[in-house]
Design a protein that fits this description.
The chain has 12 helices and 9 strands. By secondary structure, it is of the alpha/beta class. It has an 8-stranded mixed beta barrel with strand order 1-2-4-5-6-7-8-9, surrounded by 5 helices. The longest helix is centred in the N-terminal third of the chain and has 32 residues, at about 1-35. The structure holds ligand C2E and calcium ion (3 copies). One calcium ion binds near residues 176, 198, 199 and 232.
């Protein structure tokens, strides 16, 4: 048993070393990724449940690594966040997404995710202003998504920054609602324009009565506060219909469309325009 323990320990040690090395490689590569044009913005449709029309798209970052292929944002966003590189990458995503959205055939919404470092950064307001000016995108079409953990520290300055963005016409959404420790008190602290119900609840709705009850309660709560709702992770027609019946405003998920390259977003919009 003692030998087993030691060999397990050694294995663990090697594994850790490999992981640290891989992490370092990814960080180095991430620095080059923007210059090498390895980062791409994909778009996932958001649909108004009442009429089935596209109401907007969420911009989702993709890293097409020259050797490893597609690497999930779940893996590289945290590295970008730790190294501070997220400021550069975040500004790039914002600009690229706004630039593309400004030329869409329908003036639908564009949602862009913000990271904690971005909202604590003094440069956020000037960066957003600058991007809106240069791309010509109507500020009323831009929605920035934040999670409650970013607001937990409850910095006055962060709330002021978000409020200033709203004054300029930009909307602020609360992403992944329900996954944090204090979703309800976060709602009281900031006037969100939209709540995005986390996909973990939505995806469990069909087999878990409690999940369905939670989703319905969040929709009712948001409706009574006058906040628009988006259900994330809608994978079936059945769930989409339940959400519509419950009064959910919009939905996003594989049932309506997967995150896809910019051209596919155009195809979807033009398809609607042609009937
Ligand atoms: P998120 O903001 O919650 O984005 C939604 C995620 O749910 C996306 O994962 C999307 O592909 C996935 N999804 C959408 N519909 C469905 C569905 O019906 N079923 C399932 N199983 N999944 C669905 P993705 O693209 O892998 O992004 C993961 C996370 O990475 C995002 O979660 C967001 O937190 C972060 N991220 C992505 N792009 C950016 C970015 O440009 N900036 C920042 N700061 N974070 C980003
Ligand atoms: Ca999001
Ligand atoms: Ca989300
Ligand atoms: Ca989520």
């Amino acid at each position: 048993a003692k030998n087993d323990g030691r060999s397990t320990y050694r294995f663990f040690e090697d594994d850790m070393a490999a992981k640290i090395k891989q992490r370092q490689t990814l960080i180095t590569d991430l620095y080059k990724a923007t210059a090498n044009r390895e980062l791409e913005v994909y778009f996932q449709p958001q649909v108004t449940l009442e009429n089935g029309e596209i109401s907007g798209f969420e911009a989702l970052l993709r890293w097409n690594h020259s050797r490893y292929g597609f690497i999930s944002p779940i893996e590289f966003i945290p590295l970008a966040e730790e190294t501070g590189l997220i400021l550069e990458i975040g500004a790039w995503v914002l600009e690229e997404a706004c630039f593309l959205a400004a030329s869409w055939p329908k003036p639908v919404n564009l949602s862009v995710n913000l990271s904690p470092r971005q909202i604590y950064c003094e440069q956020l307001l000037p960066v957003v202003d600058d991007v809106l000016t240069r791309t010509g995108l109507d500020p009323g079409r831009l929605e920035l998504e934040v999670t409650e953990t970013m607001l937990l520290a409850d910095h006055l300055r962060v709330r002021q920054t978000l409020a200033k963005l709203q004054e300029g016409g930009v909307k602020i959404s609360m992403d992944d609602f329900g996954t944090g420790y204090s979703s309800l008190s976060t709602l009281r602290r900031f006037p969100f324009d939209r709540i995005k119900v986390d996909r973990s609840f939505v995806m469990s709705m069909s087999k878990d009565d409690d999940a369905r009850f939670i989703v319905n309660s969040v929709i009712d709560l948001a409706n009574s506060l006058g906040i628009v709702t988006t259900a994330e992770g809608v994978e079936t027609k059945e769930i989409a219909e339940q959400l519509k019946a419950e009064g959910c405003t919009e939905a996003q998920g594989y049932y309506f469309g997967k995150p896809s390259p910019p051209n596919q977003a155009l195809v979807w919009m033009l398809g609607e325009a042609n009937g």
